[in-house]
Amino acid sequence: MKNLKKFLIIIFILIIYIYVCNISMLPNNIILMQGEALNLNTFLGINIKNSNVVTASSNLNNSIVEETGKMELKLNLFNLFSVKDVTVNVIPKTTVVPLGKAIGMKLYTEGVLVVGMSEIEGKKPYENSGIETGDKIIEINNIEISNTDELIQCVNNSNGSNIEIKYINDKNEEEVANILPAKTSNNEYKLGLWVRDAAAGVGTITFYEPSTGEFGALGHGINDVDTYELIDIANGELVNTNIIDIVKGERGSPGEIRGIIEGERTIGSISKNTSFGVYGNVLDTTKLSINKNNELEVANRSEIKTGKAQIMCELENGKVQNYEIEIQKIFLENNSDNKSMLIKVTDEKLIEKTGGIIQGMSGAPIIQNGKFIGAVTHVLVNDPQMGYAVFGDLMIKQMREVN
Question: Which of 20, 182, 220, 239 would staple 123 via disulfide (CB 3.0–4.6 Å)?
């Protein structure tokens, strides 16, 4: 009898633990698009109610949300205990102009990013400082650092004296380190740290939203080539690019769009570099050949179907074309990454020219049944005709989300 009681107690504790883990993993804030279903992964016994509506008694989970604005949800266990509050922001449906144009991007970091370390005249000034690759230096001796030139000047001005460095670590926490610079044979002072304050690349701008003047691009973030981490930017620029070559993709070897960035004239400002794309404001619509007559509604993911669709991309300067693809799988409940749909290139002209999906094509908008449904994000290296795409609603939500 005692063993049975112990067993039942253990089972009860295990159930409570599973419930607590399930509830703790639910987000505190959710963004939905008008007409989208609220879909929280909850266990039996968890009821969701809108605290703004006094008379509401039914569970809201899996219901279609049509009213825009903010909802404050109360999660209750068996209608007895309040277990969590969740804020839901319902954004209105919107229209965008799909673009598919090759574009250049320049990103500038907050402070300077440490991308490597090396000895200086046989010394390691950085040793035991706590600074690691991927950290961001923001101050030296209480002087704000915004680029590599400022860092070099501050270090040289120390004349070899101990300097205090404020930096942000990989946990986004501010730390302070002290380093004694090493003198080189050229009578310069160095920390032994390789740093970078900017990054640049070529990609595809996905859409322009006329109602706000904002744009979305890439469908994925820009990572640092050395640290492989998402670059935390202070700001950035959208600039013209000239396509100079197309390298065809082959099995095991992804191709690419090769372009030259022309930075003389800024055509947009970049404010966000996220896992679901790069976002900002368009300053010069003429350079992007934006025609507002080409506005399309952004589809809710529930409207997307397997089967035929089209992508838009620029493979020759000034010439954006549509190409046929097939949507093979749709991952409706995926909000965690930008692999929302599995797609296959079926257009023979595109396959002949590129082999399928190539680097630089990320961000190519996808159109189905007269609606914008998403953007190309990845190629499968072992089969360049196959790849992934992100939902259009995820890109819009990321653009709306406040940093």
Answer: 182
